[in-house]
């Protein structure tokens, strides 16, 4: 018998999630049956979408994990293999299958397994497909990225540089700005907390913004949209500025319709599993870029399963750089 720990939702999140919204519960797992396998969690992911996802009280908090198969009665999932799955914040899991496109991890060579939760997983494919398929960048384009020091944004900026674009990252601190410009080779950064976004965009992109990769929404995005160049493209992958707001009330932001009509802009929402049939394409290309030194990764790693919730809240408040990971 194996005892598993799991985070269970006790209250629906309202505003910024509180420690009392969740509880760590122990569960004694049964012996595995024919066709089943037992996984030990090695790494957990905390991501903004967890805050926005609708769950029911009593559910295990959702989230991805990298795990090792430690016992198996399944030919498809042998002992010793590493897997990425979506079974939530728990330390051990019994399953019969892992729904595609997740499953047994390919050989990453000498890069960390935790990247399966970042650049070589859902996060990386969000950057790869979201930027290339929705923004359709061209050499010389001016690309603006909100949340640019986070896992997806920092990845998108590097892909944009690979494609010969000028990259402007927006984040909430000068330290993060120096990280993306000095280490990731972004051309400029804007600290939105200084309140000079419009002026800075006029300075850094005097002819307008060609591509905007938006993971934040809100008034910040309204300002950027009004700074777009004719025929600009906008990919919307998240609305982090609204995740802790009252969902029954519409957000109040500056209207953007005039910019869309006057500049013939295009904006499209994005969900990564739209590209599930091409999942391995994104992982293989991102791995190749990492091995070639064209993509750099950064992880904010928190030790200990019990610290998962705190790391989640810290991530929502922007207290991380790159991908937020829990080492169980």
Sheet/helix structural class: alpha/beta
Rounded Rg: 20 Å
Tell the overall outline: globular
- Helical percent range? 25-40%
Low-confidence sequence ranges: none
Using DSSP, what is the number of strands? 15
Strand content: 25-35%
Give a quick account of the main beta sheet: strands, pairing sense, barrel closure.
7 strands, mixed
Secondary-structure element pattern, one letter each: EEEHEEEEHEHEHEHEHEHEHEHE
In DSSP terms (H or I, runs of 4 or more residues), the helix count works out at: 9
Question: Could you characterize what this model shows?
Answer:
With 328 residues, the chain is an alpha/beta fold. The chain is built from 9 helices and 15 strands. The chain has helices spanning 48-52, 122-135, 151-162, 174-183, 197-204, 218-225, 257-263, 279-291, 308-316; strands at residues 2-9, 22-29, 37-45, 65-72, 82-85, 92-95, 103-104, 142-146, 166-171, 188-191, 209-214, 228-236, 266-269, 299-303, 323-327. Helix 2 (122-135) crosses helix 3 (151-162) and helix 2 (122-135) packs across helix 8 (279-291). 42% of the residues are buried.
Secondary-structure blueprint:
Blueprint: E1 2-9, E2 22-29, E3 37-45, H1 48-52, E4 65-72, E5 82-85, E6 92-95, E7 103-104, H2 122-135, E8 142-146, H3 151-162, E9 166-171, H4 174-183, E10 188-191, H5 197-204, E11 209-214, H6 218-225, E12 228-236, H7 257-263, E13 266-269, H8 279-291, E14 299-303, H9 308-316, E15 323-327
Parallel strand pairs: 8-9, 8-11, 9-10, 11-12, 12-13, 14-15
Antiparallel strand pairs: 1-2, 3-4, 3-6, 3-15, 4-5, 5-7
Helix pairs in contact: 2-3, 2-8
């Amino acid at each position: 018998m194996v005892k598993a720990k799991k985070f269970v939702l006790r209250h629906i999140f309202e505003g910024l999630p509180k420690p009392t919204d969740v509880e760590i519960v122990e569960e004694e797992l049964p012996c595995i049956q024919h066709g089943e396998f037992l996984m030990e969690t090695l790494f957990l992911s905390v991501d903004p979408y967890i805050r926005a996802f609708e769950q029911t009280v009593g559910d295990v908090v959702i989230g991805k994990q990298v795990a090792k198969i430690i016992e198996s009665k399944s030919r498809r999932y042998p002992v010793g293999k590493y897997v990425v799955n979506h079974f939530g914040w728990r330390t051990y899991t019994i399953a019969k299958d892992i729904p595609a496109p997740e499953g047994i991890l390919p050989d990453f060579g000498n890069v960390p397994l935790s990247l399966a939760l970042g650049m070589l997983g859902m996060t990386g494919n969000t950057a790869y497909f979201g930027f290339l398929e929705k923004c359709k960048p061209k050499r010389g384009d001016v690309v603006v990225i909100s949340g640019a020091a986070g896992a997806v944004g920092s990845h998108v900026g590097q892909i944009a540089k690979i494609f010969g674009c000028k990259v402007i990252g927006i984040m909430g601190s000068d330290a993060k700005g120096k990280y993306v410009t000095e280490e990731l080779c972004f051309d400029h950064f804007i600290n939105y907390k200084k309140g000079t976004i419009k002026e800075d965009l006029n300075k850094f992109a005097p002819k307008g913004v060609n591509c905007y990769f938006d993971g934040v929404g809100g008034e910040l995005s309204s300002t950027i949209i009004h700074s777009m160049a004719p025929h600009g493209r906008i990919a919307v992958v998240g609305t982090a500025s609204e995740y802790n707001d009252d969902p029954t009330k519409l957000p109040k932001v500056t209207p953007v319709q005039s910019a869309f009509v006057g500049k013939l802009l295009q904006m499209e929402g994005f969900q990564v599993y739209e590209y599930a049939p091409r999942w391995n394409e994104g992982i293989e290309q991102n791995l190749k870029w990492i091995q070639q030194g064209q993509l750099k990764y950064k992880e904010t790693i928190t030790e200990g399963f019990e610290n998962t919730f705190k790391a989640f809240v810290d991530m929502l408040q922007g207290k991380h750089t790159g991908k937020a990971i829990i080492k169980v």
